[in-house]
Write a structure and sequence with these properties.
By secondary structure, the protein is mainly α. The chain has 4 helices and no strands.
Length: 75
């Protein structure tokens, strides 16, 4: 859904289908679209995997956070 940081991190129709919170109709339509549209589903899956194993991987985010903490402590 379009809450928190998701709209900043994920692009609609690239990484998935973003829908408004508390809108079951929009969620249902988005899910039905993904069921019907195999090409979109596979494209979103591929993009999401690249994002999750690259810049948003726990190891990458953890390393950046640790580096930031070390920099702040040193200063």
């Amino acid at each position: 859904t379009t809450v928190g940081a998701f709209p900043e991190l994920l692009r609609h129709e690239v990484h998935g289908l973003l829908v408004p919170p508390d809108d079951p109709r929009s969620l249902g339509l988005a899910l039905a679209r993904l069921v019907r549209d195999g090409a979109l589903r596979m494209a979103c899956s591929t993009q999401m995997k690249q994002l999750a194993t690259g810049p948003l991987a726990w190891s990458t985010v953890g390393r950046a956070t640790l580096d930031l903490y070390r920099e702040l402590i040193a200063s």
